Amino acid sequence: MNLSHKNHPLTPIDEALEKLLIDLPRTEGTELVTLADACGRVLTERLVASINVPSHANSAMDGYAVCTKDLAFESTKLKVVQRIAAGQVGKRLSKGEAARIFTGASIPEGANAVVMQENCSLVGDEVEILQMVETGENVREVGEDIQVGEVLLHAGHRLRPQDIGLAASIGLTKLSVQRNLTVAVITTGNELVLPGNELRDGQIYNSNFFTLSTLLRLLNVDVIELGIVEDNLVTTTQILEEAARVADCIISTGGVSVGEEDYVKAAVESVGSLDLWKLAIKPGKPFASGKVHNTQFFGLPGNPVSTFVTFVLLVRPCLLAMLGCSSPMATLFQAQAAFDSDKSGERQQYLRVYLGKDGKGRPELKSCDNQSSGAGSSLCRADGLAIIPPYTSVARGDTLEFIPFSELLT
């Protein structure tokens, strides 16, 4: 599809995302990885418990294991006959006996509750119970957390640190996950040089590659660096074809606008197709997606903020979807604006904001001073993006949708 820039309508972001998520290729292939390597990966099988957790009734407190039938009075003395630490199994208690017990230790037979040590007084080999307890109090029962046969996680779940701990708690050492994506990153522009080189007149350092490669590695993606591509149609086309042979996905920055030196759009159309171009968002209008041969392609704008914003809002959920993640979208929150803003135009705006507190201690959104798409430093000052719908003005105290970077940078 050849998308001409003349009178080409801007695509709303929700419509663009819906189209992208439907048309994306899905990654095939699974692999077994150790728990140490599983965080951030996408499960391909249900996680089903094969054991109860806990596997034995145990104490939730340091104190004394007792039988509530022995506690007939508000103050009762019981003979302490044993001491049970975590990892030990005690002997059965007889009538009138108690056991010194510690958190995590198995409840001995004959006991059905634990009295916290703060509510006891030890004199010699006897403990005086100063506060009554009910049956089951301060006892973690068998299977209280997890029961045999329980489905703990579903295929398509992206694993978090707590999920790794959950898998370990049922004795697993490896998990079946989707194989990694391989993404080729291309940065275009005659003005770009790598950090470490001396800048000449008209040159800038290639920050976009380092931003993108870091964002990709947060997703456990394997990055192929194809370097800086000069502004030349033949060279750009050759690099795109090379990328299509070695990667599951291609991401480029720059060269997708309508200038005479923007060659990426023309190069993609010469060896593939563009399905989407020019979005109704600010920053990030000159975003493109399509295919180079059969390989997924995303063309991001060259300005550093536009590169970052289009990646986290569009490319990130697409890559997660390609990996089979069942919940690729970031969660949106609501917060009050601590700024005024003139009515927006036809594009939905994503303002860089940081969190503060109002006079009552409630969170509020404060706008970063410089909202230029070239002001990369503003991303470091911001805590997230506030969403301003098209043709909307903002007054202090208005409620806005807000995407914290904590939702986008994991």
Keywords, separated by commas or semicolons:
410 residues; alpha/beta; Molybdenum Cofactor Biosythetic Enzyme, Chain A; Molybdopterin biosynthesis moea protein, domain 2; Molybdopterin biosynthesis moeA protein, domain 3; 4 domains; 6-stranded mixed β-sheet; 26 strands; 20% helix; disordered N terminus
Explain how this protein is built.
With 410 residues, this protein is of the alpha/beta class. Helices cover 20% and strands 30% of the residues. The protein folds into 4 domains: 13-28 and 180-322, 3-Layer(aba) Sandwich (Molybdenum Cofactor Biosythetic Enzyme, Chain A), CATH 3.40.980.10; 32-52 and 147-178, Molybdopterin biosynthesis moea protein, domain 2, CATH 3.90.105; 58-140, Molybdopterin biosynthesis moea protein, domain 3 (Molybdopterin biosynthesis moeA protein, domain 3), CATH 2.170.190.11; 333-408, MoeA, C-terminal, domain IV (Beta-clip), CATH 2.40.340. It is built from 8 helices and 26 strands. The chain has a 6-stranded mixed sheet with strand order 7-4-6-5-9-8, with no helix packed on it. The chain has a 6-stranded mixed sheet with strand order 16-13-17-21-20-18, sandwiched between helices. It is elongated.
Please give a quick description of this structure:
Helix content is 20%, strand content 30%. With 410 residues, the chain is α/β, with parallel strands linked by helices.
Distance between the termini: 34 Å
List low-confidence stretches: 1-5
Please, what is the average pLDDT?
A: 93
Please give the number of β-strands: 26
| Spatial order of the strands forming the largest sheet | 7-4-6-5-9-8
Global structural class: alpha/beta
Identify the CATH architecture of the largest domain.
3-Layer(aba) Sandwich
Quaternary structure: single chain
Beta percentage is 25-35%
* Domain module tally: 4
Question: C-alpha Rg, in Å?
Answer: 30 Å
CATH class of the largest domain: Alpha Beta
Would you give the CATH topology of the largest domain? Molybdenum Cofactor Biosythetic Enzyme, Chain A
Largest sheet: 6 strands, mixed
Q: Which descriptor suits the 3D outline?
A: elongated
Number of helices: 8
Helix content range: 10-25%
CATH superfamily of the largest domain: MoaB/Mog-like domain
